[in-house]
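RECORD TYPE: inverse folding
INPUT: structure tokens
STRUCTURE:
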């Protein structure tokens, strides 16, 4: 079959790109190896920058987000048992974030694409990309697990790889044509979900003597919390009692504040790394989202960078199909990478600031404490944190 844009991966970048292209009358096909139920059930973080919230609304996807999401106009830094609230709205001229889980964003995007006849193909397998340097690149795929049936071929004007760190898109590019910069961190996060009411109206980033803790939320009945841990830990190493006792210690305040506790029904250990692969274009193949870049979760940038990539690509494709101009397509990699590296810098900074590095000497520990002391006491430093957290301004969606 023929289409204009073939999209590999039904994550936030792929689905949003397909939806934005539809709004501009541009055809696309989305190929996803997992089932629809699987992608809608995978629970991920969901702090949406102001620009992502605006994009959801501009694309006609904001109704449920506004009803069920939690608008956070600030966040709390807790150090040494004392709180310092960072007021996003005041420091950024009215900008804020929305806590709305990634799987809910995906549900909204899938529903929107299917409601308008979008071509989403789930449960595909053995995807391969061909003729990427030609004007007619192709994608071939088979049935799930390769069992039976003929292999299908999709011929497109362009292919966009939104299939994550282990997908086929980046692997289809010759290794010598790519440069990868990576940083692995000596700590991980134990993430857990529990049945409890919210412990706080806003996220709490806390640093205790032995490490980091984060209080977040998913709904009025389900909460998400994280603990710094050894990246080699297994979820089974952490009993419920150990999780709650560690959270109580790291989140302790001088006035006796305690988190709301409840039954824990999910535990996951998350490794932490920063990774950027560039350029984000090779011939007629473009990379977006985790296929090109990964950030540690501390700065809440992963989903937002994926949405930013989709915004840039949709505008570039709209320019190409309306005017025949390839200027925005040619500029895509450099433009996207500028934002990616700014987000990487912020994510690295927040991660380094708020975690206790194993084996750190007294000098490193004192420098970390001094940095936190400066941040808490400086309006300029708080403004820089707020500006980066709510997201740097984005350009127009369309010309």
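DESIGNED SEQUENCE:
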């Amino acid at each position: 079959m023929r289409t204009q844009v073939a999209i590999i991966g039904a994550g936030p970048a792929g689905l949003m790109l397909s939806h934005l292209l539809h709004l501009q009358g541009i055809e696309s096909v989305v190929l996803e190896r997992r089932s629809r139920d699987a992608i809608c059930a995978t629970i991920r973080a969901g702090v949406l920058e102001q620009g992502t919230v605006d994009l959801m609304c501009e694309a006609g996807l904001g109704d449920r987000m506004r009803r069920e999401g939690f608008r956070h106009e600030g966040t709390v830094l807790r150090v040494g048992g004392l709180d310092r609230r960072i007021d996003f709205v005041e420091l950024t001229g009215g900008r804020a974030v929305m806590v709305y889980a990634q799987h809910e964003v995906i549900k909204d995007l899938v529903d929107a694409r299917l409601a308008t006849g979008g071509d989403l193909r789930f449960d595909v397998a053995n995807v391969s990309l061909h003729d990427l340097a030609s004007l007619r690149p192709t994608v071939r795929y088979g049935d799930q697990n390769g069992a039976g049936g003929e292999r299908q071929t999709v011929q497109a004007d362009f292919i966009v790889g939104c299939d994550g760190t282990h997908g086929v898109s980046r692997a289809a590019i010759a290794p010598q044509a790519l440069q990868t910069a990576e940083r692995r961190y000596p700590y991980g996060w134990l993430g857990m979900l529990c049945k409890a009411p919210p412990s706080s109206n806003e996220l709490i980033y806390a640093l205790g003597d032995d490490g980091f803790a984060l209080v977040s939320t998913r709904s009025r009945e389900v909460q998400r919390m994280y603990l710094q841990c050894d990246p080699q830990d297994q979820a089974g190493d952490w009993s419920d009692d150990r999780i709650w006792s560690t959270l109580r210690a790291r989140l302790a305040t001088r006035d006796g504040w305690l988190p709301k506790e409840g039954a824990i029904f999910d535990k996951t250990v998350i490794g932490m790394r920063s990774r950027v692969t560039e350029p984000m274009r090779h011939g007629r193949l473009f990379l977006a989202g985790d296929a090109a870049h990964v950030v540690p979760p501390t700065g809440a940038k992963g989903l937002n960078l994926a949405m930013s990539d989709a915004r840039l690509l949709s505008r570039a494709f709209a320019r190409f199909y309306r005017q025949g101009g390839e200027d925005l397509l040619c500029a895509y990699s450099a433009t996207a990478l500028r934002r990616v590296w700014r987000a990487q810098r912020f994510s690295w900074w927040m991660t380094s600031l708020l975690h206790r590095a194993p084996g750190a000497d007294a000098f490193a520990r004192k420098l970390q404490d001094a940095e936190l002391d400066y941040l808490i006491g400086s309006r300029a430093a708080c403004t820089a944190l707020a500006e980066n957290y709510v997201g740097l301004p984005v350009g127009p969606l369309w010309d």
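NOTES: The mean pLDDT is 95.
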